[in-house]
């Protein structure tokens, strides 16, 4: 099968490689959605051939996914007994899924053909309007696939990056809806409203049913979000493209070991990048 980006991306609907009014219209829509609630979904970003190729590639390396099972709060921090029992920082939930590390995806494979397509990075940057925008230099994490199956899900959390770029590849048989509370901590931590989301009493939660081939841009550092539990035998595959604020950034050895089950020399040689804000991670 042709793994050129041109056959995998729906360039008729999303001419990301050509300057002009059609690309500008796509940018305008994405920016408006991001401004409104921190989320933009480009429906049908992949062609049917693209969906099939990325699914086949994910399945071919699925056995290399690193599974992790733990309990976490929305901030990925440890319990603090000095806080009240109902503080959101003390609410812990089961987290279980798997990440297929980036070095499983070949340069000439489908996933990297999308990532490396001429104009892809520039288009994402233009949508997000980020001045500081670099590919993550981590060889285990620049582009990965999240794999989840029956009973798995990702509980409520904030991202450690300012934004995430994800591509839906395959859905589970049922479940797996993407739920988020837009901009819930724009400006401050807003613990009271976070607590409402966690206990199911918030009216600020939006639900998205993403379909294979959809590209999602999401400002997850400011919007509390989760993936609802999955049901059925078919695994859910979602690609994650990572961009950061400074060149040369890689993950810390501790975080890399947790997510991917191993580290490389580069994780010990380089310092992980520092965040520009003071929010809890």
Automatic annotation (TrEMBL):
- What superkingdom does the record give? Bacteria
Q: Which Gene3D superfamilies match?
A: q2cbj1_9rhob like domain (2.60.120.620)
MF terms per GO, please? Answer: metal ion binding; oxidoreductase activity
**InterPro entries in the record:** BesD/HalB-like, Oxoglu/Fe-dep_dioxygenase_dom
Answer yes or no on keyword Oxidoreductase: yes
Any idea where the Fe2OG dioxygenase domain is?
123-245
Q: Does the keyword Metal-binding apply?
A: yes
State the UniProt keywords alphabetically. Iron, Metal-binding, Oxidoreductase
Coiled-coil annotation reads none
Q: Which family does it belong to?
A: Belongs to the iron/ascorbate-dependent oxidoreductase family.
Official protein name in the record: 2OG-Fe(II) oxygenase superfamily protein
């Amino acid at each position: 099968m042709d793994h050129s980006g041109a056959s995998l991306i729906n360039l008729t609907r999303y001419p990301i490689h050509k300057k002009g009014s059609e690309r500008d219209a796509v940018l305008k829509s994405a920016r408006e959605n991001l401004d409104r609630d921190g989320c933009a979904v480009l429906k049908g970003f992949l062609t049917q051939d693209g969906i099939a190729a990325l699914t086949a590639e994910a399945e071919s390396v699925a056995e290399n996914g690193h599974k992790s099972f733990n309990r976490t709060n929305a901030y990925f921090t440890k319990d603090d007994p000095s806080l009240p029992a109902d503080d959101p920082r003390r609410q812990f939930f089961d987290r279980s899924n798997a990440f297929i590390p980036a070095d499983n995806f070949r340069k000439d494979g489908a996933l990297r053909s999308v990532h490396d397509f001429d104009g892809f990075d520039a288009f994402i940057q233009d949508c997000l309007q980020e001045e500081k925008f670099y590919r993550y230099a981590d060889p285990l994490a620049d582009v990965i696939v999240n794999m989840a199956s029956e009973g798995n899900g990702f509980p409520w959390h904030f991202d450690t990056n300012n934004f995430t770029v994800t591509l839906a590849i395959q859905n589970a048989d049922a479940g797996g809806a993407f739920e988020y509370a837009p901009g819930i901590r724009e400006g401050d931590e807003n613990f009271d409203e976070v607590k409402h989301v966690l206990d199911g009493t918030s009216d600020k939660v939006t639900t998205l049913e993403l379909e294979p081939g959809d590209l999602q841009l999401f400002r997850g550092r400011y919007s509390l979000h989760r993936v609802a539990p999955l049901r059925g035998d078919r695994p859910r595959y979602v690609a994650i493209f990572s961009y950061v604020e400074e060149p040369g950034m890689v993950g810390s050895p501790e975080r890399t070991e947790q997510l991917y089950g191993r580290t490389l020399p580069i994780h010990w040689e380089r310092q992980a990048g520092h965040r520009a804000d003071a929010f809890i991670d």
